Each structure stands twice: as C-alpha cells, then as structure tokens.
C-alpha cells in the first residue's frame, strides 16, 4: 500500500486585475472576448488615417493640373479626375532663385549631414563626461545645458550673425584671410544647427549613457582603459540606439528647416536648399501649387529613407535610460 505524499499549497497572493492597456495588448485565444484590443486597433487606425491624410492630399495635388490644383480641393479628384505625371518632369527642370531642384537637393544633403554628425560627436563626449566623470560643477552645468532647450532659436539669430561678422573682421583684418568668409557660408549653418541641436543631444545621450551598467565601466578601468579608450570602444558601440534616435531628429530638423537656411546662407543660387527652393517655386501668389507639391513630394524621399533605415533603433534610443532597474 503506497503512501501518498502531499505538499502544502503555496499561499495565494492577491493580484491586481489587469488594466485596460493590459487587456488591449494581451493576445486572446480563439473565441475569447477581445473588445479592448479591437477598440485599440480602431483608434490606432483612425490616428494613422489622420496623419496620412495630408500626405495623400499632397500626392494627389502633385498629380493635378495647374487649374484644378488652384481652383478646388484635392478631394474633388474623386469626381473630376484629370491626374497627370508631367508635373514631376516640369519641377525637375524648373529653376527657382537661379538653381534647379537637383542643385537644391544636393545643397540640402551638404547642410544636413554635417549638421547632424557634428552635434552627435560633441554631445556624445559631453554626455560621457556628465555620466561617468567626476568634476566640480557637473550637475549645475548639465542643468544649464538642459535649460537651453526652452530658449527659442529666433532670439539667437542676431547675436550669432554679429559674432560671425566679428570673426570675419578678425580673420581678414588681423590675420589676413581675405578669401575666407564665415557669414553666409555652409560652415556657418553647420555651426548654427549644431548649437541649436546640442542641448537635446546632450540630454538624450546623458540619460542613455548614464543608464549603462556600471560594472562595464569599472571593468574597463580595471583592465587599464582610460576615458578616451572606454568611450570609443565601449560607450559608442553600446549607445548606437540613442545616437541613431537623435540622428533621426536632427536630420529631419535640418532637412526641413527653412528659417535658419534663409538667414544663415547667402541668397545666391549656390546657397539654395530644398526648402528655400520650394518657397521660391510656388510663386508670388502661390499660383504654382502643382509644382510646389510635386517638388515637396520628391524632397520627402531622403528623410523617409533615413527614418526607415534607422527606425529599429528609434524607440530603443528614446526609452532606454528613462527607467532604471
């Protein structure tokens, strides 16, 4: 006769009932109720539709005739029809401010790439220093960096231009560099965009780098690695998601920027970027709406390629470092 061994039941721990978001995003079995999930999907589809509506309108307007684009809304194409692709060939050959769309396209790349790389490099060094280096005044200096986020860039234009003029005067009058002019050059807009993007870059990267495992940094010190070696061989490879997330933000801002390019670059043809080109292309009274939308749709290709190429790092780079533990 065998004896049956019983074990005492484990104590029952009361648990909270799942909230709405938990129910909505938890997979249900066949036949189980999933009303919260369906509601969430419907809301998300509506949000996506609202966000896509302007892009659809832009695409439809870029395919309409000049008269139709100026006289009626894009949604009337459902009853009127009359789409054409000749607007795209016309905008590729049109000139605005003495430059073509291809030249403005290249200038936008020349502006956006260095204006993205420069603040990332500088901010990464600063974020490492704020996170893992001990020095006097570290926290107040970081707070000062973050406080610059609330300063509108418009208030900085006049001081920046005055500084550029003084630098040009010093270089030409004192050092004899008559052929070098900072004001109105690509270098000026690179430095301006780098300065405007630096506070957010330092803030994001400091949060991410500061959340990296302390044991990794300490083991590098034990192995004899200095700060520079630790930064390049450990911090940079581990911080790729945060670097990519900020790169997306900064590239989109500089690519779509109009005001800084209008003020910092010369008005000559060699200084036209895509946004200033499109502003001149629409005409004095906005009568070239079909060309404006076609050109805008073409210039969307590079930002979309950058975003979809780096999107797998985007959410990780923004959320990592926000919660520790």
From TrEMBL:
Domain ABC transmembrane type-1 intervals: 105-310
The family this protein is said to belong to: Belongs to the binding-protein-dependent transport system permease family.
GO cellular component, one term: plasma membrane
Transmembrane segments: 38-60, 109-130, 142-165, 185-205, 231-252, 291-310
PANTHER family documented for this protein: ABC TRANSPORTER PERMEASE PROTEIN MG189-RELATED-RELATED, OSMOPROTECTIVE COMPOUNDS UPTAKE PERMEASE PROTEIN GGTD
Localization, UniProt: Cell membrane
Family matches, as Pfam families: BPD_transp_1
Assigned keywords, A-Z: Cell membrane, Membrane, Transmembrane, Transmembrane helix, Transport
Domain of life: Bacteria
The protein's name: Alpha-glucoside transport system permease protein AglG
Origin species: Euzebya pacifica
Topological relation to the membrane, as annotated: Multi-pass membrane protein
Gene Ontology biological process terms from the UniProt entry: transmembrane transport
InterPro entries, per database record: MetI-like (IPR000515), MetI-like_sf (IPR035906)
